[in-house]
Write a structure and sequence with these properties.
about 200 residues; two-stranded antiparallel ribbon; 4 helices
């Protein structure tokens, strides 16, 4: 049986919850870069478009748009060893945008959300790759996954707070974009040409 760690984020109250769920027997482990029904695996060469946001925003939804992302970690135990695969995923059918928010800056914030999720997925992969987990190490494996996913969720809370309050503030966009490797000068030229030159 493959087991999956997953994540729920409430956009209204920014409430994060981690839980351990059982996946259906025989679920395939998704590889990076593929687009399947309802979800997209993160790929540096593929950027989100508004066409990927297929859910309808409700009156209760806070903010302008929401990219529902997750760190998927599937693992199984075979021959006494834990085998796993980690990926960052965007869920199209859970992601929405309000009609008056379809602009390049808001879309870039949503891409940043996905990029941050991918960054923590890589951190999780690196942390797990430093160990050869045997079946007896399942508790240690679970704790490693939970710790990094918790760090990711806490980062997301900070990210969403700034995104909703400083959507068009270049300083805050630059701060988060720099964390995931965007060039500030290119960012300014593409999204904020009216802003003074930046270092």
């Amino acid at each position: 049986m493959k087991t999956r760690f997953t994540h729920i984020l409430s956009t209204g109250l920014f409430t994060a919850l981690i839980f351990l769920g059982n996946a259906v027997n025989g679920n395939s482990i998704r590889g990076g870069g593929d687009k399947n029904d309802g979800f997209i695996d993160w790929n540096s060469g593929n950027k989100l478009t508004w066409n990927n946001f297929k859910a309808e925003a409700s009156e209760e939804d806070k903010g302008f748009a929401f990219a529902y992302t997750d760190i998927d970690c599937f693992y199984s135990i075979n021959d006494g060893l834990i085998h796993y695969q980690v990926s960052a995923v965007f869920y199209e059918d859970e992601s929405w945008v309000k009609d008056d928010a379809r602009n390049p800056v808001t879309l870039f914030w949503q891409q940043l959300n996905f990029d941050l999720t991918a960054q923590f997925a890589y951190k999780l992969s690196d942390a797990l790759s430093n160990h050869n987990f045997a079946a007896k190490d399942e508790e240690k494996f679970n704790k490693t996954v939970s710790k990094i996913k918790y760090d990711w969720q806490m980062t997301q809370l900070d990210f969403f707070a700034e995104m909703n309050h400083y959507t068009n503030d270049f300083k805050h966009v630059k701060k988060w974009a720099s964390k995931v490797g965007y060039n500030p000068k290119e960012l300014k030229a593409n999204l904020f040409p009216e802003v003074a030159d930046v270092e």
